[in-house]
């Protein structure tokens, strides 16, 4: 009898368990399996295999029942996720419907999720800009949150490591605030974007427009062919999943790579209810999993646990992992677990028209979405009435205008033979928000989901600093567009709740001091050394860059450290 | 255009497999069973004539051949509120009445020029009823939407590429 139990436990035992298969979980899986460790990856959603499970990937617009639009029924049933630009007929099967996984909005927060193998790495906007020391030194210099326990030099080699494997297209721009990486050729700016770059270069020596760096294979290398990926074909239908593997996702890259080692066990439909802390052993021994279909509860065991469930769900799992030693959630000696959640402020845009360069237009499509201006406000020193600053995304294009006012043959003629309109320039802000104790997530006292896991309360809001920064963005872009001679400049202070940026971060922040942070410089829980958090939950501050590249680099770095610590039997 | 292509297009325009024609239907009912709206075969044919007036057959297919009226109804049925649906259906009757009042003939029997005249009157009438307004706006908008997003237009007239494989940000504009 006891032998059977021992066998059963053996079958359920791995070297490492990775919770989550998204952009950071995929990297953890790759690193551990490559180093010969038996790795279990738990995914709460369905399996999505590269190419095979991209049902819409090769569809033409007329093959969609509503030509891409949402039906009223779907829109009404999903007021939250319907706000997301990617929730359309071609990709809505990769996004969580509101009623499937409820949460409690103590303040308005649009929580956009992708519960499937690959997570949101299938859907991300693929922008990959490095952080610099202007970012890592930010909290210490400007006196907010806590000091990052790492600096740029700690992560620099790991950025290069993940860039070479993932494939990042970009130019060497030589900017201290946006360090160069190990790039494939960058995508070019178009005529109007390039013109704007020139204007800024002349009139604002401290501001720089570059071609946005993105996770696309502009010129694949052997390591990409080895992953089964090919050159990006400029489809820009990425949210459907790419049959060429032209952009980086867990599905196209890290997970199949991990599977090839023979060391990967991938288990979809597995919600992690909690991480199991053994009070006697003084460490974590495994995780408790609920099968989402059968609701059966199973335990899996491992020496090391990586929590990569997606920023807020990582908070949820740790908060729900209670033991005698940790009554308020795993590793939560400081009482700060779930607090200091932050995000990116995307709540303003400016558009304009440009009458010049009519001899050019664009042909084909670009996957990098145009130009990018890294943060210039308060970069070297505090110089405005608000803390930190914002990056700006730019994109220009010429629409074909089709006058639909007539009817009959004239209408038909206008529709078929459109006229090329002027260049239109669009920009949006990506503002750094300041993590605060009052922006937090917590467990709901009574409500649980279908699997008995408490619902997450989300209490996150903008503050005065965000409002001042937004005003400055609107003023500055209006001024820059005016300098460029653009017409019909339209500042748009659209309101959107936090969350829709899909850059939620923090709650399990890194720091040097266990009294004021949860994770050390290796993304290891201060109070429980065999648990690591390397997704967005670990972020001490948010900076302005799209965060995924940093999650990837932190994950590879932490996994390397964990393997060494296991060898030395420290964990 | 060969017959097989037409049939294929009819099926696609009708929304593919999700829109199976009702096998057993009451006499005079629409060829498609809709979820939320109810209309007669007569009304369906009338809408086809209106769509054809908006986008007529020339040397290329028009709305009728591309079954755009069924696309308009599909969108009306799935993507508009019940308030809009009711306004649309009432507006459709009002237009039928209007053409009869004006020419003592049903819209279908009017000349092409007369049909255009009726629609242009509605388009330019600033004091038209909310029902007519809803009917005309939705019909025109979705007929254009269906046309521009039809397989025929996307493969023959305004081509859409699934796999461009290129980007040129300095593409020279051909002078007219």
TrEMBL record, chain A:
* Record-annotated membrane-spanning stretches: none
Q: Looking at the record's lineage, which domain of life comes first? A: Bacteria
Going by the UniProt record, its keywords in alphabetical order are: FAD, Flavoprotein, Oxidoreductase
Instruction: Give the Glucose-methanol-choline oxidoreductase N-terminal domain ranges.
Output: 152-321
Does the record carry Oxidoreductase as a key word?
yes
Q: Which family does it belong to?
A: Belongs to the GMC oxidoreductase family.
Q: Which InterPro entries match?
A: FAD/NAD-bd_sf, GMC_OxRdtase_N, GMC_OxRtase_C, P2Ox-like
- The species this protein belongs to is Pedobacter duraquae
Q: What is this protein called?
A: Choline dehydrogenase-like flavoprotein
One GO MF term: flavin adenine dinucleotide binding
Cofactors demanded by this protein:
FAD
The chain positions of domain Glucose-methanol-choline oxidoreductase C-terminal read 435-554
Automatic annotation (TrEMBL), chain B:
Pfam families reported in the protein's UniProt record = Gluconate_2-dh3
Superkingdom of origin organism: Bacteria
Q: What is the name of the protein in this document? A: Gluconate 2-dehydrogenase subunit 3-like protein
| Organism in which the protein naturally occurs | Pedobacter duraquae
